[in-house]
Design a protein that fits this description.
Layout: H1 9-60, E1 81-86, E2 92-96, E3 107-115, E4 118-126
Antiparallel strand pairs: 1-2, 2-3, 3-4
């Protein structure tokens, strides 16, 4: 007589429970990861503005007051960035959209400093939660 082989109902329920626990951890972590990746796109969009502000500071010895003074378009947008604005002191504000309700309309503020002929940038300001910011922008 052949021996019957297969999984019992208890074994299947244990496997499903383990998968449920793993998915409960993995899905929120993946969502945070995708939001961080989309936030990073805003920092890439800001790279041109950072360069323009730095060049203005080095050439005229003053920070630009707005996008026009920095030599940028008045409106800068991308898929996940609703606006990028240069403010007084060369401060760049990136406003986000189309990412997640927790992040839409939130901002990251990049502040320049000038010392020894070099412009350095920090991005610790703004309203985007720390868990969604790229590593170099967390306070």
């Amino acid at each position: 007589m052949k021996k019957m082989q297969g999984f019992t109902l208890i074994e299947l329920m244990i496997v499903i429970a383990i998968l449920g626990i793993l998915l409960a951890i993995a899905i929120p972590a993946y969502n945070d990861y995708t939001i961080r990746a989309r936030i990073s796109e805003g920092l890439n969009v800001a790279a041109a503005a950072k360069m323009a502000v730095s060049e203005t500071r080095l050439s005229s010895n003053a920070w630009p007051a707005d996008n026009t003074a920095a030599g940028l378009n008045a409106t800068i947008q991308s898929t996940y960035v609703s606006g990028l604005a240069v403010g007084p002191g060369g401060v760049i504000t990136i406003t986000y959209r189309n990412i997640d309700p927790a992040v839409n309309t939130q901002t990251i503020i990049m502040t320049p400093s000038f010392a020894g002929g070099t412009v350095r940038w920090t991005c610790t300001g703004g309203s985007v939660q720390a868990r969604f910011r790229p590593q170099n922008c967390r306070a």
